[in-house]
Amino acid sequence: MEVSSTHKPVIITCAVTGAIHTPTMSPHLPVTPEDIATSAIGAARAGAAILHLHARRPEDGQPDPRPEAFAAFLTNIRDGCDAVVNITTGGGLGMTREERLRAATFASPELASLNMGSINFGLFPLLNKYEAWKHDWEPGYLSNTKDFVFKNTFADIEYILKTLGNGHSTRFEFECYDLGHLHNLAYVADQGWAEPPFFIQLIFGVLGGMGADLDHLIYLQKCLEKLFGDSCEWSVLAAGRHQMRFAEQAALMGGNVRVGLEDSLYIGPGKKAESNAEQVNHIRARIEQLGMRIATPQEARQRLRLKGAKQVSF
């Protein structure tokens, strides 16, 4: 595919640690506040304009929604780079809506993630890949997802949008795991609960959501054009081995990309990534080889109409 000269610079998001992978799965997964800050700053210096952040308990790596867990690394990240900080409202499996919002309301970030519908969220197949576990909580955490629904009702979505959007002028990365989630966002826009431009993250390869099929991406781009026209910025993440292939295709199609150890622990077949920066460097090189350039944090702020780094609370 020939790259058009009209392509906008590609916004790279890096999802630094997440709440999916557990410490047994990779020694390179950031867990402590120091590791999260160092890894995030490294990703920003490699070219990530946006850093998507979760927190973990340093003693065992469990997802941690407490504001103090985020406070332990947010200031260091702010002081170490100019990237946009994007704080999760998804949290970890089984957290209440209020728990999921604690860190974001504390930090009042420029950007926060928001899942646009309830889905089955199956991590249990990962159990078959490991015989021994570093921490006792890990196998139960994964096996419980066989009977787990990641709840994001319209009431949840409205509450989060109004609490963070109206209360903190935070804007959102709308995470869409299925076609219906795009229609949910269109409904939200019609209700006036959120205003454009909408930053839409299309997610592939999570069990319970869309499969990692490039035909799905091509179709969804057409749906985005019909539903939102020029009023959205879209990005793609794909889980596991599909990460880089989908990111490269998204960039070619005029979209933005997300990489990071939250979404994949690997840099190539059978080779684990040693850092988030390694993944960012890899996709940046491919984007530049294709004749495009990456967006700076300031360009991302302008395109997404963010309030600015000086308007946060950390």
Overview of the molecule:
The protein has helices spanning 33-46, 67-80, 97-107, 137-143, 154-168, 179-191, 214-228, 243-252, 276-289, 297-304, and strands spanning 12-15, 50-53, 84-87, 111-115, 119-120, 149-150, 171-176, 198-204, 232-238, 256-259, 266-268, 271-272. The strands form three sheets. It has an eight-stranded parallel β-barrel with strand order 1-2-3-4-7-8-9-10, surrounded by eight helices. The mean pLDDT is 96. It starts with 11 loop residues before the first strand and ends in a 10-residue tail after the last helix. With 314 residues, the protein is α/β, with parallel strands linked by helices. The protein has ten helices and twelve strands.
Show the helix and strand layout.
Blueprint: E1 12-15, H1 33-46, E2 50-53, H2 67-80, E3 84-87, H3 97-107, E4 111-115, E5 119-120, H4 137-143, E6 149-150, H5 154-168, E7 171-176, H6 179-191, E8 198-204, H7 214-228, E9 232-238, H8 243-252, E10 256-259, E11 266-268, E12 271-272, H9 276-289, H10 297-304
Parallel strand pairs: 1-2, 1-10, 2-3, 3-4, 4-7, 7-8, 8-9, 9-10
Antiparallel strand pairs: 5-6, 11-12
